[in-house]
Structure prediction request, 362 residues.
Amino acid sequence: MAIDYLMLQGMRNLASLSFSPSPQINLIYGANGSGKTSLLESIHFLAYCKSFRTHKSKFLVQHGQDSLTAFCKLPGQQLGIERSLKGERRIKLNGQWLNNAAQLASLLPVQLLDPTMFKLLEGSPQFRREYLDWGVFHVEHDFISIWRQFKIAHKTRNALLKQGSKSSVAISETERQIWHESLAKLANQITVMRKTYLTELKPIFDDYMSRLNSSVEVSMAFYQGWGKDKDYLQLLNEGWFSDLKQGFTQQGPQRADLRLKVNGMPAVEVLSRGQQKMVVCALKLAQAKLYQQATKKPCIFLVDDLAAELDINHRKALCSLLEELECQVFVTAVEAAQIADCWSPLSNVKKFHVEHGNLIPE
Prediction:
């Protein structure tokens, strides 16, 4: 999947623009604050209806404008999203209005490599669960349905716990058991899917890691959210009174984590910033490769500030692997020379200079 045409209006500090990117490599360079990252952000917005820089979409709307519009053409598809300053959002796919953004995740499978990607190592387990579930979602068709059912059952149990902690009326054992059995069944299904996915991901990750930085060997372990030798239904039943005191379900797949270590220590504690970046890049490349194997479609990579924390050899190694994936890449840098020589002469490379919000093709 590649973007054939992109049009933007009212997006941050970008002037109204339209252009046809390369189906392979797009080099975007310019001074800090010129609008490079905003261009990547607009593609991310088309894929997820949200920014990777802020949780408040209203800040995407250009100062002085009432709304923003992002539109793109894909092979056989046309997608447009409008977001008003008041918070109203409208999505149109092939001339039809969509009620939600869930369909976009499959339409535009975007992988992001930017300065915030270190959260995958140093951030809370939530970031690693989101990474993991993105991959499972794209290869297991039943995952999203099962996950939504689990969230309902989990929310209901938490409501029962809060009700029981504030009320003198005890929750009946029968009512508890009904929700516990449903919750346990769904939790076990989610966990099996996650484990299966990681089993397939690990050898691909190891291969990419060895090619990006052969001196670093990273182990990958999955914590399912409760003790691996414990039955989840039994744990729910036995933990009811403990959870009742806390007012929420303390264990389960909502607490899962992907643990990355080097020599038995957390990777974030022992690796340099550049080495950490290579680990995250290997994770994202492996996920894109597994997605491509499952769907026969490539991801789109957004790479913001490629040169940060990477020397020329590691930049070239990463770019070579991106080319191998035969995916569409949008990559930014302050100076064109930082990224221009990292690609094969055979690649279809387009270069764009961003200056004061204007996109100038070269």
